[in-house]
Amino acid sequence: MSERRIGIIMNGVTGRMGTNQHLARSIAAIRRQGGVALRDGSRLMPDPILVGRDGGKLQRLAKTHGVERWTTDLDAALANRADRVFFDAATTQMRPTLLKRAIAAGKHVYCEKPVATTLAEALSLVRAAKKARVKHGVVQDKLWLPGMRKLARLRDEGFFGKILSVRGEFGYWVFEGDPGRAQPAAQRPSWNYRAQDGGGIILDMLCHWRYVLDNLFGEVQAVSCRGATHLPWRWDEGGRRYRADADDAAYATFELKGGVIAQFNSSWCARVRRDDLLTLQVDGTKGSAVAGLRDCRIQSYAETPKPVWNPDIPQPIDFYAGWRPVPDEAFDNAFKVQWEAFLRHVAGEGGFRWNLLEGAKGVQLAELGLKSWARRRWLDVPKLKA
Ligand SMILES: NC(=O)c1ccc[n+]([C@@H]2O[C@H](COP(=O)([O-])OP(=O)(O)OC[C@H]3O[C@@H](n4cnc5c(N)ncnc54)[C@H](O)[C@@H]3O)[C@@H](O)[C@H]2O)c1
């Protein structure tokens, strides 16, 4: 079986997402499985070159994941015509500049979300990629989570009847990193909590909710969002106390095309008493579902209990009992599945809808969410044109 090499410049791989999801779980895993199968029977084999600032870290990372090439010289990497794809999972703020350099060098580009911190920048990227006629993609990983795939299938089978509403609960307690307390290390990077570094849960999560809602339940047409900065002080990676001035919770409502109403609570300051870190409850005229990252449970019309309000007796209904699990299928890692689709697309096989314009829509919704909060009002989400 013949093998086709595809050179990928991977930037930001020493970070949390870059290392775990993109290098270990996606590119290294694709290499281990023998590449991506193409229609002509050949296999597309990723040949990554890791790019970053710290040579020592890159070398160790390359060794751990069986990667031969790494460099601290991005210009030299971009100058190599044999590497046709540029990928970025470094900081959101630097992304537009980096992507533009890669596009100018004629690379196809794939990147983490948010594609930029402002809609204007995000749209300028769409235009640059279009002009250069390069292929482009943005990570929309939640669409390939088993829980979301199950919701999509239920929707396609008509299980819900008419979908009325969607309720999303996202979040968990992100420790402050206070060296003097029981959990001295935070489980997320400190820049997430500083506005000047591109932090904030609205920019982070409304990008996700945009593509989840657009793809599963109807295009987002209006938003009302109330952000909050609940915890004003946190401690950084070096144990230094800093002012956490970015929003760490968002309480948002969306109106979708077709009339569905979606409400999402996103919080890094909430303790979990639900099935998973993200749960989506979908209520329809014929049935409901609650999906987490992997599992999904359903309750049909016929299975719906008939509660009667009576606080004077203990609750006679076990509301958790009346739900059936949706059977599992073989679902691969969500980031890997999307990587495979992008690589096939670059190789000329299949379209790829999850592009820079779709990424810009996420930034648009985040920006409108922030505006809605500042102005204390509902805002329409206009159609985007690059
Ligand atoms: N798809 C998702 O679910 C998801 C989840 C979390 C984060 N993200 C996105 O992924 C990106 C990275 O997030 P993370 O949590 O991995 O952050 P991180 O802080 O762990 O990693 C950031 C990376 O950028 C590099 N970097 C930082 N400053 C730099 C500079 N000045 N010059 C060059 N490189 C620099 C770091 O070395 C590191 O490799 C962000 O854009 C974030 O929004 C996406």
Annotated CATH homologous superfamily of the largest domain: Dihydrodipicolinate Reductase, domain 2
**Helical residue percent band:** 25-40%
How big a fraction of the residues is strand? 15-25%
* Poorly predicted residue ranges: none
CATH architectural type of the largest domain: 2-Layer Sandwich
Order of helices and strands: EHEEHEHEHEHEHEHEEEEEEEEEHHE
**Strand numbers in spatial order across the main sheet:** 17-16-15-14-8-13-12-9-18
- Average pLDDT, all residues: 97
Q: What is the strand tally?
A: 18
Number of spatially distinct domains: 2
The major pleated sheet works out as: 9 strands, mixed
N- and C-termini, Cα separation: 42 Å
Number of helices: 9
State the shape.
Answer: globular
CATH class of the largest domain: Alpha Beta
What class, by secondary structure content? Answer: alpha/beta
CATH fold-type name of the largest domain: Dihydrodipicolinate Reductase, domain 2
Radius of gyration: 22 Å
Ions and ligands: nicotinamide-adenine-dinucleotide
General description of the model:
The chain is globular, with a radius of gyration of 22 Å. It contains 9 helices and 18 strands. With 386 residues, it is α/β, with parallel strands linked by helices. The longest helix has 20 residues, at 356-375. The protein has helices spanning 16-32, 55-64, 74-79, 95-104, 119-132, 146-157, 201-216, 334-346, 356-375; strands spanning 3-11, 36-37, 43-51, 69-71, 83-88, 108-111, 136-138, 163-171, 220-228, 233-235, 241-243, 249-256, 261-267, 278-284, 287-291, 296-300, 324-325, 379-380. The model has no long low-confidence stretch (mean pLDDT 97). The protein has 2 domains: 3-141 and 335-354, NAD(P)-binding Rossmann-like Domain (Rossmann fold), CATH 3.40.50; 143-332 and 363-380, Dihydrodipicolinate Reductase, domain 2. Helix 5 runs antiparallel to helix 9. The two termini are 42 Å apart.
